[in-house]
UniProtKB/TrEMBL annotation, chain A:
Superkingdom of the source species: Bacteria
One Gene Ontology term from the biological process aspect of the record: dipeptide transport
GO CC, one annotated term: outer membrane-bounded periplasmic space
Keywords: Signal
Organism name: Methylobacterium pseudosasicola
Presence of keyword Lipid biosynthesis: no
Name by which UniProt lists this protein: Dipeptide transport system substrate-binding protein
Automatic annotation (TrEMBL), chain B:
Catalyses which reaction(s): ATP + protein L-histidine = ADP + protein N-phospho-L-histidine
Keyword field: Kinase, Membrane, Phosphoprotein, Transferase, Transmembrane, Transmembrane helix
Protein known as: histidine kinase
Catalytic class of the enzyme: transferase
């Protein structure tokens, strides 16, 4: 059996080598799930954003592996004294991709930038609308941005209603991706406006080629990418194509990685980490991501509108056991929404204990001494912040059962699950968040702010506290970090008191690579950026 | 009419008639030949065209690699047909034929053009089919790779599954042990409660204590043992799973239990509950994972199956498509195209390795694209075949009509010729016969008259005149000529007689002159002899004179000595010796002179006397040679002689001497170049039958071949300017033949010398045999 396997593997390897080593080499990434859309402005999950990151560029971007802003499509920018006017100077000669139905007639100009933002800003446009652009609205950008205009074709001016220190970091996110206005116009003219989200055209390092849901997503390297044109080639062989082999099961992903079917895999299972470390053909990358896993309690629904019930749930769950059992060494117990790697983290926040008796007492106080029935939603797939939603849900159910809360486990396929959560359907739901811009605002405002509490928003607990909101708003308006830290600590205190969540864990995220590839950088913002990935030269 | 004209008439009429017939026949036959040749040519062209059509069909049906031969054959056939048609134009007699040929030619050229286009298209298509085959091969290779990959992945999957199942088994063991431990705690709690209750009972009713307490105590102890055993079991299982920390915690917690077991709700129970929760959820999760892996493995097997199906489909598709294309079945090829599309969709839908999938789809797309083009090409080819068939049929039909036209024409012509020739020949033969009869009559009548006259004239030439000299034709000419002939003969006879008389007189005169000349020559030869003799004698006489003078001087000196009285004995002796010596010398030389004179006398006598005597040839020859030496000395030539010793013959020595002298003189004068000493040999030999051969040979320059014939002619010489008479050899010839009765032969080779052989009888007695002179020479 073993000999046969070796023979088989050798045969496969032989065939791989025989298949013209000089030919185009495609980098295959075993990804964890299908994207919801190819419209970067509609992306709310890292899975979808990672699909967009390959195709699109933003005005400014985070240097890979960091949360530092650097110029991208905007070569430079200036901020007015009052912090309300941003003037971006666009890079020259940036080319768009092309596809079967569209060949760009011009390079990037201000028109494209105006289009990319105004469609999210102004509802009612053929390619826009409030509902679809959740993230943009969750961040309050629709309210924040007063006007976008182009003084000339190379410059873009953003006029804000008030100063916002998170503005640059916010527009560096996926929804800030710059689309081709020309392409959108062509599609609208052809009556195929929806294809903007199906056949994306961007300026990014890879051009979209094809997509088969739940199976495979193909890109080809964009040789005219502005950064590629200007930068030296460097060592190693640049991939000609990029493929996302969509493989939700972590064990299957690992199997494919081992077989050489993919060159990198997302989120290996916690239980497999030791085996990957031991495998000489594989490399395991790990990084403490800026993320949080939590159980959101819908504060607009009884009985979770009662803070005592929410506190009881918090006390009844043995979170330590969950972290130990499910996350193992890759997780640390979360006490609040902000991960310890972020400067706004409050180490003094008192820990929520595991106290079943107190929980029961609180329930009794709330008139629920006999407990109650509820649904507990858990994600069907492993996420960077939660490797095994089902198991976490199992353990929570067991704990809740001890205090009389009878939870029924519910799940949906990933996209439906996400939609249900954003739609505000469930009462108890497991979810998580990876920072998209490295700013505390990205946790405290997006996940718990009042704007995001609207239907379709990312504030799944639908918790809206005006006092908290003011604190977060204030923190956003000022550029002074100490002052912001102060404001955020107070905000975190409010969250602790109101307990709209049961914070579960912050995680270290893993990614496994095959030995023949290098140049991949783990990103604290959960981005999978393949622009710098190279193949090691084949041994002669 | 003259006889010539009549003969010309007699001969000419049939010749002309035959010529006319032959000419007419030739012209007509040539015409017919043209018609027949045209028909044959048309038949060839027809055959070529029909064959070309078959070859075209073969070309269309053949395999790609065999097509070349058919295309070449087609080209050859049509080129031949075209050349045939071109030649046929030369055979065409009427415009109808020409226009027909032109139309067939035009059709043929169109046909060839179409075939060229067809060949090009089939070549294109064959190229495409080849490429398709390559694609199909690539595809099969790719599907096979995909299948192998899938297999490898399935093997990995099975391993993962086995690992997960093992993990699940461990988790289940832990859960059951945790459950057991918890049950033991509960059991202990129950027992403890019993003990407490019994304790209270005992307290209430004294005396039963002793009996009950040990029973309960032992039960508690047993529970304790069971609890610890369960705890140990769990701890060991945890350690086996590598969870040392948890096992240690359990051991600690178990150790803390020293007294009665704390029961439910205690620290240990909380620990158990927590672990139970973790393990149960882990077990659930593993369950899910195994279920997913199982589902995936089923799916993977299905994928492998589907991949295999695609491979099989591809394998089938290739040959079926190739077959359809070979049979030119566009509809079937179209179905194969649809099949290919289905395969492509299947391949695209399969979650196989994306690396191979892209290549597979690409290969299938390429294959389909080429097939589509090929089918289009095939359709056009089929249309072309139909068009070509139409054209070929029309063309072959035209060729057939052309053939019929040529054959019919030829047949008609043949009958026409037969008639013409028959009529013409009969008429001309009749005419010829009439002319012959007339001419024969007009010639024979005067000819017979002339014959009669001639017979009469033979009898008496002067008797009668020849009749018919007044006629104007050839018979008139003959009569006139005969008359002239007769008178001329009469006149010439007289003239001949006069001339003969004059010639006889001249001959006598001539002979006299010749004799005079011969005599003069003879005297000249004698003169030479005398000069030679004088010279020969001069030497001994000179020596004798000198000796005499010396002796007289010696005698005078002796006398002086004697007179002076100074004569010594030795001087006397010396004088005597000198005298003796002088006298000897005088005697010798004078004897020699006397001998010479005697010899010359004989020679001279011989020269002038014609008497025959017996001659000792050796001695005689020595004397003769000696007399010739002075002649040789001037050119420093040498003269040798050979002679059988003791040979004595009866001959005329004067004649023989003159012959030898003349021949030697000739050799000296003419034989050698100036300044080159030569060698002359006089050789005498004896033959059987009394014949003597005398040969005089030199190694000089020889005689030019053109002179050989004339060498014995009188007055022929090449050195007249040097004083030669040209009579020497003539005289020699006359002497040999007339005086010796012998034979003379001359052999000469330029550059090698000349040899003159004189053969004569050893005895002059008896009959004289005359030999005809022969001059032999080598060219």
């Amino acid at each position: 059996m073993s000999a046969a396997r070796r023979y088989c593997a050798a045969l496969v390897a032989g065939l791989l080598v025989a298949a013209d080593p000089a030919a185009a080499r495609t980098f295959v990434f075993c990804s964890e799930g299908s994207p919801e859309s190819f419209d970067p402005a509609r992306a709310t999950t890292t899975t979808t954003m990672n699909v967009a990151w390959q195709v699109y560029d933003t005005l400014v971007e985070f240097a890979p592996g960091t949360t530092t802003i650097r110029p991208a499509l905007a070569e430079s920018w200036t901020v007015s004294e009052d912090g309300r006017t941003y003037l971006f100077a666009l890079r020259d000669g940036v080319r768009f991709h092309h596809n079967a139905r569209f060949i760009p007639s011009r390079t990037l100009n201000a028109e494209d930038v105006v289009f990319s933002f105004t469609r999210q800003l102004s509802p009612g446009q053929p390619l826009g609308g409030t509902q679809e652009f959740t993230y943009f609205h969750d961040l309050g950008l629709a309210e924040l941005i007063e006007a976008i205009d182009a003084p000339d074709s190379r410059h873009i001016r953003f006029r804000l209603r008030e100063a916002d220190t998170t503005f640059l970091a916010n527009i560096a996110q996926a929804f800030g991706a710059i689309l081709s206005a020309e392409y959108a116009a062509a599609l609208t003219a052809a009556g195929a406006a929806d294809d903007l989200a199906r056949q994306p055209i961007g300026t990014g390092p890879f051009a979209f080629e094809s997509y088969r849901p739940d199976q495979v997503l193909r890109y080809r390297a964009f040789s005219e990418h502005w950064r590629r044109v200007n930068e030296p080639a460097g060592p190693g062989e640049r991939p000609d194509g990029l493929v996302f082999a969509i493989t939700p099961n972590a064990a299957v992903r690992l199997t494919k990685l081992r077989a050489g079917e993919c060159h990198a895999m997302a989120f290996p299972a916690t239980g497999d980490l030791d085996a990957i470390r031991a495998d000489p053909e594989l490399t395991l990358l790990a990084l403490a991501e800026l993320n949080v896993a939590y159980l959101a309690l819908n504060t607009t629904r009884p009985p979770f509108d009662d803070v005592r019930v929410r506190r009881a749930v918090n006390l009844a769950i043995d979170r330590q056991a969950i972290v130990a059992g499910v996350y193992g060494a890759a997780g640390i117990l979360a006490q609040g929404p902000v991960p310890p790697g972020l400067w706004a983290f409050d180490p003094d926040l008192p820990a929520v204990p595991f106290d079943r008796a107190e929980a029961q007492r609180l329930l009794a106080e709330a008139g629920l001494a006999d407990g109650f029935d509820t649904e507990l939603w858990y994600p069907p797939v492993s996420r960077p912040y939660n490797p095994d939603g089902r198991r976490v849900a199992d353990m929570i159910r067991a704990d809740l059962a001890q205090v009389g809360i009878r939870a029924e486990l519910v799940t949906r396929p990933w996209n439906a699950y996400r939609a249900a959560l954003y739609g505000g359907m469930p009462s108890l739901m497991l979810y998580g968040w990876t920072s998209d811009n490295g700013d505390p605002d990205n946790f405290l405002n997006v996940l718990l702010g009042c704007k995001a509490a609207q239907p379709g928003g990312a504030n799944l607990a639908r918790w809206c506290d005006p006092v908290y909101e003011r604190l977060v708003e204030a923190a956003r308006r000022t550029g002074d970090r100490a002052q912001r830290q102060q404001l955020y600590r107070r905000a975190q205190g409010l969250v602790r008191a109101a307990m709209p969540w049961v914070p579960l864990a912050h995680t270290q995220v893993h990614l496994a690579l095959r030995g023949e590839v290098f140049g991949f950088t783990m990103d604290p913002l959960g981005r999978h950026l393949f622009e710098t990935v190279r193949f090691r030269p084949l041994p002669p | 009419m003259r006889v010539g004209s009549k003969i010309a008439l007699v001969g000419g009429v049939p010749i002309l008639a035959a010529g006319a017939i032959a000419l007419a026949g030739w012209m007509l036959l040539a015409q017919e030949e043209r018609a027949r040749g045209g028909a044959v040519l048309v038949a060839d062209v027809y055959h070529d065209l029909a064959t070309a059509r078959v070859v075209r069909d073969q070309y269309a049906a053949a395999d790609a690699q065999e097509r070349g031969a058919f295309a070449e054959r087609f080209a050859r056939l049509t080129a031949r047909a075209e050349a045939g048609l071109h030649r046929l134009t030369g055979f065409a007699r009427i415009d109808a034929q020409r226009s027909r040929i032109a139309s067939v030619e035009a059709a043929l050229s169109r046909y060839r053009g179409q075939m060229d286009a067809f060949v090009r298209r089939t070549q294109d298509n064959d190229g495409l089919i080849r490429e398709m085959a390559q694609r199909a091969d690539t595809l099969i290779d790719l599907t096979d790779r995909a299948r192998l990959r899938q297999q490898a992945s399935n093997t990995d999957l099975a391993r993962s599954l086995a690992e997960k199942v093992e993990a699940l088994r461990v988790a289940r063991g832990l859960v059951s042990r945790l459950g057991t431990l918890r049950a033991r705690i509960a059991e202990s709690a129950v027992i403890a409660k019993k003990v407490t209750v019994s304790g209270e009972t005992r307290n209430a009713a004294e005396g039963t204590d002793q009996a009950v307490a040990p029973a309960f105590g032992s039960e508690t102890q047993r529970a304790q043992v069971r609890f610890r055993a369960a705890s140990r079991d769990l701890s060991e299982a945890m350690r086996a799973d590598g969870r040392e920390a948890d096992a240690d915690t359990l051991d600690e917690l178990t150790a803390e239990v020293t007294g009665p077991i704390p029961g439910l709700g205690g620290k240990l129970d909380a620990w158990i509950e927590r672990n139970l929760k973790i393990e149960t959820s882990g077990q659930e999760s593993l369950h899910d994972e195994v279920a997913q892996l199982l589902a995936y493995s089923v799916e993977a097997n299905e994928i492998e199956q589907a991949t295999q199906n695609i491979a099989i489909g591809t394998l089938k598709l290739g040959p079926r498509t190739a077959g359809a294309l070979l049979r030119r079945d566009a509809a079937l090829a179209e179905r194969m195209l649809a099949e290919g599309e289905r395969l492509g969709q299947n391949a695209a839908a399969l979650p196989i390795s994306p690396l191979i999938q892209a290549e597979m789809i690409q290969a299938l797309d390429g294959w389909r694209k080429r097939l589509t083009t090929t089918i289009g090409g095939l359709r056009r080819q089929n249309e072309m075949i139909v068009a070509m068939d139409g054209l070929a049929a029309a063309m072959v039909e035209s060729a057939k009509a052309l053939n019929d036209a040529f054959v019919g024409d030829a047949d008609r012509f043949g009958i026409f010729i037969q008639r013409i020739l028959l009529t013409g020949a009969t008429g001309l033969l009749l005419l010829g016969a009439l002319v012959v009869i007339f001419v024969a009559h007009s010639i024979l009548v005067p000819l017979r008259a002339l014959q009669g006259d001639m017979v009469k004239l033979t009898g008496n030439p002067t008797g009668a005149a020849v009749r018919g000299t007044a006629r104007g034709d050839e018979f008139g000419d003959i009569a006139r000529a005969t008359a002239v002939f007769v008178s001329e003969i009469t006149r010439r006879e007289g003239a001949l007689r006069r001339a003969k008389d004059q010639a006889d007189v001249a001959l006598v005169e001539l002979r006299r002159t010749q004799d005079n000349l011969v005599r003069a020559e003879k005297l000249a030869s004698l003169g030479e002899l005398v000069a030679g003799v004088a010279h020969e004698i001069n030497t001994p006489l000179g020596i004798a004179l000198t000796t005499g003078t010396l002796m007289s001087d010696e005698a005078r000196a002796f006398r002086t000595s004697l007179t002076a009285g100074t004569l010594s004995r030795s001087r006397l002796n010396h004088f005597v010796d000198r005298v003796e010596e002088g006298a000897g010398l005088l005697c010798t030389n004078l004897t020699r002179a006397a001998d010479l004179v005697q010899g010359f006398k004989q020679v001279a006598v011989d020269r002038v006397s014609d008497e025959i005597r017996s001659v000792a040839l050796e001695t005689w020859l020595d004397d003769l040679v000696a007399s010739l030496r002075p002649m040789l000395r001037k050119g420093a030539h040498s003269l040798e002689r050979t002679c059988p010793p003791g040979l004595v013959i009866d001959t005329n020595p004067g004649v023989l001497a003159q012959i030898v002298t003349n021949l030697v003189a000739n050799a000296v004068v003419h034989g050698f170049r100036a300044g080159e000493p030569g060698r002359i040999v006089v050789r005498v030999s004896e033959f059987e039958g009394g014949l003597i051969r005398l040969e005089v040979a030199d190694d000089g320059q020889g005689i030019a071949p053109q002179h050989l014939d004339r060498i014995f002619d009188p007055f022929f010489t090449t050195a007249r300017s040097a004083g030669s008479t040209g009579l020497g050899m003539h005289i020699v010839h006359n002497l040999v033949t007339a005086k010796l009765g012998g034979r003379i032969t001359l052999v000469s080779e330029p550059g090698r010398g000349t040899a003159v052989q004189v053969d004569f009888p050893a005895s002059r007695a008896g009959t004289v045999t005359r030999y005809a002179p022969t001059a032999l020479g080598t060219p």
